[in-house]
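Subject: two folds for Thursday's group meeting

Dear M.,

Sorry for the delay on this. The cluster queue was jammed most of the week, so I only got both jobs back this morning. I'm pasting them in the order they finished. Each block is the input sequence followed by the predicted structure tokens. Could you check whether the formatting survives your parser before we put anything on slides? The first protein is the one we discussed after the seminar.
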Amino acid sequence: MKLTSIEKETIINFNEAERTASIYTHNEALKRQLLELCQTHPEQVCQTAANGWGGLTFELPKKWLKVSPPRKPTPAQLEVLARMTQKRLGR
């Protein structure tokens, strides 16, 4: 049985009492990133479960979690980007 896209969810869970967060995910890019962190930071990040359907669960410090809005470039930055694009296109 294959899971649908809507069934392939990511769940981030933490509470106020503990210092760690749990991330359950089917997202391939996030799984790769977390598996790499397991290798580079084994004392802080570990895989705790695999559900057999492609979902993996990880535990990591909750202070590593961050929600950030997309950056909005300033008019000066937009001007520099426009010049770089024109230069690349040979104009």
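Second protein, same layout:
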Amino acid sequence: MFVAHELGVPVEDLRRASRGVADICEARQAAMYLAHVVFGMSFTAVGREFGRDRSTVAHACEQVEWRREDVSFDALLTRLEWQLRAATQMTRTDAPRQEGNAHGG
């Protein structure tokens, strides 16, 4: 996962039930924010992926928005957004194309 790698935390820590230390909490919040913003997932869907409820995801997104006032954090998040969008586009364009139709034409 891009966020875990960029912020130097183990991927499995992002989904742990406990809150963890501040750096893990901040990485988890960033990952939840990016899942919501980049992939358009609902707070409920993001919460399900991270073992949290929708209100926790909403709070995480709010915290990340506040933290974006820090220029270096904003630059990091902008880079992660770009990387995730690029990876998503690559996946979509690398998918094999199906030629013809179901009737062999």
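Two things I noticed about the second structure. Helices lie at 2-7, 11-14, 22-39, 43-50, 54-67, 71-94. The chain is about 70% helix and 0% strand.

Cheers,
T.
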